[in-house]
């Protein structure tokens, strides 16, 4: 069967070499197998025939049975069109074409009975149907009587005659000629246990379902299969890593950890923080390398969890590092950690792009000798010339896409065993989606905010009436609070955006006084940014105007108001991240989403979500609903990378969980897939590999 399904599509009657090339380019369909797996994007119900006198304005696609009475042409030049009177026993409508007149009249001679299918349109008190699909009784057998598939096509495809209808025909032919030759790809025990239809049936039913139930079954089976093989690959590679990659074994919890925990912890940990610390301890004590992702909403206290993990490394004779995505954030972590660890006499190093040569000359030898135990920095940390004595714990802050390759650069920082890797992310995505996207990571979730946090009060306001907002800001500033004002910036170089930031500065400065207002954007160099941020952190400046450079991680608990200008230009997850900058102190905080009075529908919906909830996971789910999987911040393209054609880890969460469990139990019992009933799994994996679906190596 292998060979048959891998036959080039050019050998299918009606395709040929030219169209084959075009199909490859347009929709990546190359072989018989590809075409069978080119699934419809929707179905139209053609089990019902309408009468011409039943039509209503605004109807979707309908089919009618009747006679083409006669053709006539109207207009000249560009206005020219072909019309036909089409009638059944109950009345008549007009069919209209703007091209292909000759062909149509030749193919469908007057006076005969046809089935026409299209979207009726209502004009000057009568109905017409532009460019209908036309069938004779014979050709209709393929389309009428059930759900008819519609396939995505591109303009190029249509130009060379490959319409959705043409694909229907090709698939129909292919299904006929491959009947009995498609082999099962899942083991029988799985098919039985989950009540799945056999593969050949599922493929037939996904293209030509007789009824909605068949369609449901087919979808279930095909989604199951996609997710199952994805999970199987992830489980196999995880299993491989476990046995191959020995990590530092943190056998003891010692003085560093205990003395900090007992004497210097500034607050009680939340239960969620405790749970995650425990998960980390278990991982690190196992002797295998930890690769763990900690997901927690903004402000959930990930930093403290990271610090405790780092102290655990110190207790076991290792060093630890924390890597942040920006210099601002690295500096802030450096300051925060230094302060917390000062009472214990632990020095914290800082290494960022702007660290001078002289500073490096002091820092690097101490790192190499092991005298310096903790260092914070940016990507500068993974440069090859940065040598650690024995790195045991690497914390990666706010970079959930920190991939396998990048992680590997950390591995050589320990001469003997692999360092543990702890990745922190404030991009909350539903667990099932995370499991699939970051399948090679274990996941911890901090699903609890520190006590006393008041939810940020969020409101939508129009920017043509700033007076009440300014009054409000005056009151807040008088109370000692500080304010962020964020401007969208598509690209930091975009002149119009910089201009609106500068105009904003003028407006705020004239209302609040220059001495209270400052401004930071991505075009400034690191030193300037730091200078500006310092004046805000210290409380000297009351209002910080910024582009999204402040998006991740910045922590100024005294700031209680977040104003987002042109909020309609931000995505949901970005809005949520920005809002997370406030609400970090004990005070009531506010987030004001500004837009002009003309807001598009989509943007309005996003703003409504923001005003209705503070929960990052709900925001993420709404985001996914509105934009669909694959458009979510940080997961863009993942669908494609994962080679998923039909399953959607976001909305098929339950199936992800089921298939993951099944895959894990198979790998636990038969890690090399050599048991007789698992042979089909191994064969299928090989087949997928040979056909370029190396899903695993692409994600992470
Ligand atoms: P994020 O998860 O966004 O990185 P941070 O680690 O920056 O959050 O923590 C946000 C704020 O909450 C910090 O000021 C931190 O000191 C404080 N915090 C963290 N954990 C607790 C806790 N258990 N109780 C009280 N405050 C906490
Ligand atoms: Mg953080």
TrEMBL record:
Domain of life: Bacteria
GO molecular-function terms, A-Z: DNA helicase activity; hydrolase activity
SUPFAM superfamilies: Nucleic acid-binding proteins, P-loop containing nucleoside triphosphate hydrolases
Entry EC number(s): 5.6.2.4
Pfam family, one: Helicase_C
Domain (Helicase ATP-binding): residue spans on this chain: 283-446
Similarity field: Belongs to the helicase family. RecG subfamily.
Protein name in the entry: ATP-dependent DNA helicase RecG
The species this protein was found in: Falsiporphyromonas endometrii
């Amino acid at each position: 069967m292998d060979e048959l399904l891998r036959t080039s599509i050019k050998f299918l009657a009606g395709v040929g070499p030219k169209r084959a090339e075009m199909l490859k380019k347009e929709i990546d369909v190359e072989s018989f197998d590809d075409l069978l797996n080119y699934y419809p994007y929707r179905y139209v119900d053609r089990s019902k025939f309408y009468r011409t006198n039943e039509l209503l304005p605004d109807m979707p696609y309908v089919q009618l049975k009747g006679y083409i009475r006669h053709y006539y042409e109207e207009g000249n030049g560009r206005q020219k069109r072909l019309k036909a009177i089409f009638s059944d026993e109950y009345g008549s409508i007009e069919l209209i074409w703007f091209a292909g007149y000759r062909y149509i009249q030749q193919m469908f001679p007057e006076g005969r009975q046809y089935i026409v299918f299209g979207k009726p349109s209502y004009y000057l008190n009568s109905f017409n149907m532009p460019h209908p699909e036309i069938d004779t009784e014979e050709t209709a057998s393929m389309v009428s009587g059930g759900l008819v598939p519609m396939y995505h096509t591109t303009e190029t495809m249509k130009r060379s005659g490959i319409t959705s209808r043409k694909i229907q025909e090709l698939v129909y032919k292919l299904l006929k000629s491959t009947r009995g030759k498609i082999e099962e790809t899942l083991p029988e025990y799985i098919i039985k246990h989950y009540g799945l239809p056999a593969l050949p049936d599922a493929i037939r039913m996904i293209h030509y379902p007789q009824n909605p139930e068949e369609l449901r079954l087919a979808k279930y089976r095909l989604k199951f299969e996609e997710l199952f093989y994805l999970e199987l690959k992830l489980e196999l590679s995880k299993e491989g890593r476990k046995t191959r990659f020995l990590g530092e074994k943190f056998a003891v919890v010692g003085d560093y950890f205990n003395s900090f925990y007992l004497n210097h912890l500034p607050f009680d940990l939340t239960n969620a923080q405790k749970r995650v610390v425990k998960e980390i301890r278990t991982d690190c004590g196992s002797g295998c390398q930890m690769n763990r992702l900690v997901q927690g909403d903004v402000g959930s206290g990930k930093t403290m969890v990271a610090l405790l993990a780092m102290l655990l490394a110190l207790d076991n004779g290792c060093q630890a590092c924390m890597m942040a995505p920006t210099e601002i954030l690295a500096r802030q972590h450096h300051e925060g950690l230094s302060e917390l660890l000062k009472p214990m006499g632990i020095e914290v190093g800082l290494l960022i792009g702007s660290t001078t040569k002289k500073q490096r000359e002091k820092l690097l030898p101490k790192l190499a000798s092991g005298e310096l135990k903790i260092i914070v920095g940016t990507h500068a940390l993974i440069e090859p010339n940065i040598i650690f004595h024995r790195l045991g714990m690497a914390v990666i802050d706010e970079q959930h896409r920190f991939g396998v390759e990048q992680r590997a650069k950390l591995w050589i920082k320990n001469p003997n065993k692999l360092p543990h890797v702890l990745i922190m992310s404030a991009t909350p995505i539903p667990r099932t989606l995370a499991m699939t996207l970051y399948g090679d990571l274990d996941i911890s979730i901090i699903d609890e905010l520190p006590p006393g946090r008041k939810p940020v009060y969020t409101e939508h306001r129009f920017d043509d009436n700033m007076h009440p907002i300014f009054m409000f800001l005056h009151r807040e500033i008088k109370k000692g609070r500080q304010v962020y004002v964020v401007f969208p910036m598509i690209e930091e170089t975009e002149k119009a955006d910089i201009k609106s930031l500068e105009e904003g500065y003028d407006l705020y400065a004239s209302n609040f006084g220059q001495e209270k207002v400052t401004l930071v954007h991505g075009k400034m160099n690191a030193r300037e940014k730091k200078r500006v941020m310092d004046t805000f952190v210290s409380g000297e400046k009351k209002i910080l105007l910024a582009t999204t450079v402040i998006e991740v991680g910045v922590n100024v608990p005294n700031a209680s108001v977040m104003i987002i200008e042109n909020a309609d230009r931000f995505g949901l997850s970005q809005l949520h991240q920005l809002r997370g900058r406030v609400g970090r102190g004990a005070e009531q905080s506010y987030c004001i989403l500004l837009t002009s009075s003309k807001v598009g529908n989509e943007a309005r919906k996003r703003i409504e979500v923001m005003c209705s909830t503070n929960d990052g996971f709900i925001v993420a789910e709404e985001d996914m609903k509105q934009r669909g999987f694959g458009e979510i911040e940080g997961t863009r393209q993942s669908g494609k990378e994962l080679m998923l054609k039909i399953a959607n880890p976001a909305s098929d969460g339950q199936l992800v969980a089921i298939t993951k469990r099944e895959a894990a139990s198979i790998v636990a019992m038969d890690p090399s897939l050599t048991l007789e009933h698992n042979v089909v799994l191994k064969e299928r994996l090989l087949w997928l590999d040979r056909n370029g679906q190396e899903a695993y190596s692409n994600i992470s």
